[in-house]
Design a protein that fits this description.
By secondary structure, this protein is of the alpha/beta class. The protein is built from 16 helices and 21 strands. It folds into two domains: about 270 residues, Aldehyde Dehydrogenase, Chain A, domain 1 (3-Layer(aba) Sandwich); about 180 residues, Aldehyde Dehydrogenase, Chain A, domain 2 (3-Layer(aba) Sandwich), CATH 3.40.309.10. Helix 2 runs parallel beside helix 8, helix 3 runs antiparallel to helix 5 and helix 5 runs parallel beside helix 6. It binds nicotinamide-adenine-dinucleotide. Keywords: Oxidoreductase.
C-alpha cells in the first residue's frame, strides 16, 4: 500500500505520473478553442507540474450544448434511477481502484500530506459517490392529500444543466460533493475546477466515462475564475450553478445569475468558526487535540476550521499550554512523506496573505504564543509554522476575517451569554464546536449558535449522511445527505382530474 512506502519511493511514483491536462467535453478530451493554457504548480516546491487547457467562453458554450443535448435526449435523465445508481456505483469502485494515482495527483496539486489525500480525500470521494449511488432507487415521490376527485402527483424532477465551480482545498472531494446528488437525480453536469488544482477532476471525467456515464453528462472545463468560471456563471442555458469557494466569489455568482437567466445558485462559502471550551470540558488533553486538528488540519485551509478558540478564563492557561505543545510537535514537512502532518499552503500568494494577517495580529495587540513565521525555507514551497495568538479581541482583524491558513486566535471568556454573543458576532455561520459535560448547557448553547453544524465534545465530525452547509454569509445550500438532492431537483406537480368516486351502492340479495 502507498503509505507503507517511504518519501523517496512515493516521490518516484509521483514523478512518473503523466497527468491529463485537457478539457473533457462531450465524452472526449479536447484542447481549448484558443489554444490557451495555465500552469498548475506544486505548492511544496513552487515548481510547475503541467500546463493545463484554459477554457474560454467558446469551450464553455460547447460544454453547455453537450450537457443540454444529453439532458434533452434522455440518455441519462431518461434512465431509471436504479440504472443511474449502477453506473455511479461503478464510478465509486473506479475511484477506489485508482486511489494511489488520484492521491498522488491531489498531493502534488494541493500540497496536502499524502496521508490525508489518500485516507481522506480520495477514500471519502469514493464513499460519497457510493452513498448516492445506493440511494438512487430508494427515494419515493409524493401524492398530495387533495380532494378525492383529484390525483396530484408530486415528482422530484432534475433541474437540467448544472454548472459547478469548486475551490482548491479539497478538489476531488468537492467535485464528489456535487457529482453524486447532481447525477443521481438525472441532471447533466459541467465542473470548473479551481485553477490551482484541476488534475484530479480532469481525471475523474475519464473514470466516469469508463463507468458508463454517457458523453455529455459530465464535462470538465478547466480554467480561471474571471474567464471560465464567469462564462459558466453567466451562461443563459445553465439552469443551476453550484458554487463552493469564498464568500466574495459567491456574491459574484449571485450577480452573474441576476444579470443572465436568474439561474438557481447554490452557495457554500467561507467561515470563521468558533470553538468554545467551557470549564467543565473534561479531559483537556482530548480537547487540546481537537483544537489543534480543528485549526491546523490541511494547514488551516478548511472552510470549517475552528479558527476562533473561546476558552473559559478558569482553564485558559491549562488548555493553552497543551495546545502550544501539540502545535509545536506537528510535523510540517514534504507532503509526499507519509509521516508529514502539515504540508504547504496552496500558493505563494496565499502564504503572503497569511503572513500579512499574522503581522496584523501582532500590530493590533494580540500575543503570539507560537509560530508566526515561514518554515522549510529552501524547498521553494509555501510553508508556515502552526501559529497561535492569545489575548485576541473579537474586533481584531484576525478574529473577523477568514485567514484560511494555520493561524489560531484565542479569546478568553467569562460567562455563557458573553460567549454566545461573541461566537455569533461574525458574518459567517458555518461550523461551531463546544465542550462541556453538562447536557443542558450543551443543548442550550448549540441551539443559540448560528451555524450550519454544531459539534459537541468533538470538532469537525462529518458524514455523507448528514447535511453540510452554512447560515449567514457561509452559504445558502446543503451538501451531503438526501437534502443535497433537493438542491438539484424541483418538485413538479401533475394534477390529474379523476371522476368523482361512485356513491356506495348497497347490494341486497
Ligand atoms: P475562490 O472563491 O477564490 O475560488 C473558488 C472558485 O471560484 C475557483 O474555481 C475559482 O476559479 C472561481 N472563481 C474565482 N473568482 C471568480 C470570478 N470572478 N468569477 C467566477 N469564478 C471565480 O475560493 P478558493 O480560494 O478557491 O477557496 C477557498 C474558499 O472556499 C474559502 O473561503 C473557503 O472557506 C471556501 N470553502 C467553503 C466550503 C464550504 O463547504 N462552505 C468548502 C471548501 C471551501
Amino acid at each position: 500500500m502507498l503509505l507503507d512506502r517511504d518519501a523517496a519511493e512515493i516521490g518516484a511514483m509521483a514523478e512518473a505520473l503523466r497527468p491529463e491536462t485537457r478539457a473533457f467535453i462531450d465524452g472526449e478530451y479536447r484542447t481549448g478553442s484558443l489554444g490557451e493554457s495555465f500552469t498548475t504548480e506544486n505548492p511544496a516546491t513552487g515548481e510547475a507540474i503541467a500546463k493545463v487547457v484554459l477554457c474560454t467562453g467558446e469551450d464553455v458554450d460547447a460544454a453547455v450544448t453537450s450537457a443540454r443535448t444529453a439532458f434533452e435526449d434522455g440518455r441519462w435523465s431518461g434512465r431509471s434511477p436504479r440504472d443511474r445508481g449502477r453506473v455511479l456505483l461503478r464510478l465509486a469502485e473506479l475511484i477506489d481502484e485508482h486511489r494511489e494515482e488520484l492521491a498522488l495527483l491531489e498531493c502534488l496539486d494541493t500540497g496536502k500530506p499524502i496521508r490525508d489525500a489518500y485516507t481522506a480525500d480520495i477514500t471519502k470521494s469514493a464513499a460519497m459517490t457510493r452513498w448516492y449511488a445506493e440511494a438512487a432507487d430508494k427515494l419515493y415521490d409524493e401524492v398530495a392529500p387533495t380532494r378525492p376527485d383529484v390525483l396530484a402527483v408530486v415528482r422530484r424532477e432534475p433541474l437540467g444543466v448544472v454548472g459547478c465551480v469548486t475551490p482548491w482545498n479539497f478538489p476531488l472531494y468537492q467535485a464528489a460533493y456535487k457529482l453524486g446528488p447532481v447525477l443521481v437525480s438525472g441532471n447533466s453536469l459541467i465542473i470548473k475546477p479551481a485553477e490551482q488544482t484541476p488534475l484530479t477532476t480532469i481525471r475523474l471525467a475519464a473514470l466516469a466515462l469508463e463507468a458508463g456515464v454517457p458523453p455529455g453528462v459530465l464535462n470538465v472545463v478547466p480554467g480561471d475564475g474571471p474567464i471560465t468560471g464567469a462564462a459558466l456563471g453567466r451562461h443563459p442555458d445553465v439552469d443551476c450553478l453550484a458554487f463552493t469557494g469564498s464568500t466574495a466569489t459567491a456574491r459574484r455568482f449571485l450577480a452573474y445569475s441576476a444579470e443572465s437567466n436568474a439561474k438557481k445558485v447554490c452557495v457554500e462559502a467561507g467561515g470563521k468558526s468558533p470553538h468554545i471550551v467551557f470549564p467543565d470540558a473534561g479531559d483537556l488533553d482530548e480537547v487540546a487535540e481537537a483544537v489543534v486538528w480543528g485549526i491546523f488540519y490541511h494547514q488551516g485551509q478548511v472552510c470549517s476550521a475552528g479558527s476562533r478558540l473561546f476558552v473559559h478564563r478558569a482553564i485558559a492557561g491549562e488548555l493553552l499550554d497543551r495546545v502550544v505543545l501539540l502545535a509545536e510537535a506537528l510535523r510540517v514537512g514534504d507532503p509526499l512523506d507519509p509521516g508529514t502532518q502539515v504540508g504547504a499552503l496552496i500558493s505563494d500568494r496565499q502564504r503572503r496573505r497569511v503572513m500579512d494577517y499574522i503581522e496584523r495580529g501582532r500590530a493590533e495587540g494580540a500575543r503570539l504564543l507560537t509560530g508566526g513565521h515561514g518554515t522549510r525555507a529552501g524547498t521553494g514551497g509555501h510553508f508556515i509554522a502552526p501559529t497561535v495568538f492569545d489575548q485576541v479581541r473579537n474586533d481584531m482583524t484576525i478574529a473577523r476575517e477568514e485567514i484560511f491558513g494555520p493561524v489560531l486566535a484565542v479569546l478568553p471568556f467569562d460567562d455563557i451569554d458573553e460567549v454566545v454573543r461573541l461566537a455569533n458576532d461574525t458574518a459567517y455561520g458555518l461550523g461551531a464546536g463546544l465542550w462541556t459535560r453538562d447536557i443542558d448547557l450543551a443543548l442550550g448553547v448549540a441551539a443559540r449558535l448560528r451555524a450550519g453544524q454544531v459539534w459537541v465534545n468533538n470538532y469537525d465530525g462529518s458524514d455523507w449522511s448528514v447535511p453540510w452547509g452554512g447560515f449567514k454569509q457561509s452559504g445558502t445550500a446543503r451538501d451531503k445527505s438526501l437534502h443535497a438532492i433537493d438542491e438539484y431537483t424541483a418538485p413538479k406537480a401533475t394534477w390529474i382530474q379523476t371522476r368523482p368516486p361512485a356513491p356506495f351502492t348497497l347490494v341486497t340479495r
